[in-house]
Specification:
alpha+beta; five-stranded antiparallel sheet; 3 helices; globular
Length: about 120
Amino acid sequence: MKLLLQAQYDQLLHNGRMQAVLEDFDPKPVVKLFTPDAGCTWLLTAIEPDEPDIAWGLCDLGLGFAEFGTVSLSEIQAVRGKLGLPVERDRHFVAKAPISVYMKYSYPAGRIVTNIPAFAETAP
């Protein structure tokens, strides 16, 4: 499976450009990636325009906490779980809220939470 569709890559790059000029830019995640056999999850929001291998997102490596920051796309591509399975793209994931809402629910849970309450979907 291809890690990112072209439309997702284009949106991530667009978000990266917006992030560079808008101080309080808070986009919805564009794509959810996960390891089917290792408990890792990434909600990616942007790609660095000058470094297309570096993405911004909420990252959970299965260690009991989620963290917003940068990650290398080539490193994600190289990750293999316990059974040797590669990272997959969640084809059914549709972001319902900005990344800040996912962070709000994920940090206390110690993992990425994608099933956010309906009332949170419209939160600023």
